[in-house]
Amino acid sequence: MTNTKGKRRGTRYMFSRPLRKHGVVPLATYMRIYKKGDIVDVKGMGTVQKGMSHKCYHGKTGGVYSVTQHAVGIVVNKQVKDSFLKRVKENDQKKKEAKEKGTWVQLKRQPAPPGEAHFVRTNGKEPELLEPISYEFMA
């Protein structure tokens, strides 16, 4: 048999409910208040099919950009979880400390610099010059 091409293909365990959590969804799930700029994780729930996000977004982290009466719009750029949230909290802490001191703080991450310069020992031997062999047309 060929593989099916459905939206929920391969989601047997992804959208399944935990043990003793089947049935009606608690109202607290729907009553939670989200505001623009909140950082949220996308998690599909198999109990409610209407409005369920695609399986490729399950477990991704994004920011809320719109809140309507029946849905929350989320921008998902890439898969990030605790590492991103940890960096956001650290940056907020750094900003708060800098504001109290009245100074400026660098929050952007910098790429790793090139390696430090060092001397190479030759142990009395002369360095050998390596050159490519010149190309000669052979007919």
From TrEMBL:
* UniProt key word Iron-sulfur: no
Q: Does the keyword Nucleotide-binding apply?
A: no
**Record key words, sorted:** Ribonucleoprotein, Ribosomal protein
- Example GO molecular function: structural constituent of ribosome
Q: Report the GO terms under cellular component.
A: ribonucleoprotein complex; ribosome
**Which BP terms does GO give this entry?**
translation
Signal peptide region: none
Provide the protein name: 60S ribosomal protein L21
* Superkingdom of the organism of origin: Eukaryota
Q: Which InterPro entries match?
A: Ribosomal_eL21, Ribosomal_eL21_CS, Ribosomal_eL21_sf, Translation_prot_SH3-like_sf
Give the originating organism. Chrysochloris asiatica
Amino acid composition bias (Basic and acidic residues), ranges on this chain: 91-102
- Family listed: Belongs to the eukaryotic ribosomal protein eL21 family.
Gene3D superfamilies named in the record = Ribosomal protein L21
Q: Where is this region: Disordered?
A: 91-123
Against Pfam families, the record matches this protein to: Ribosomal_L21e
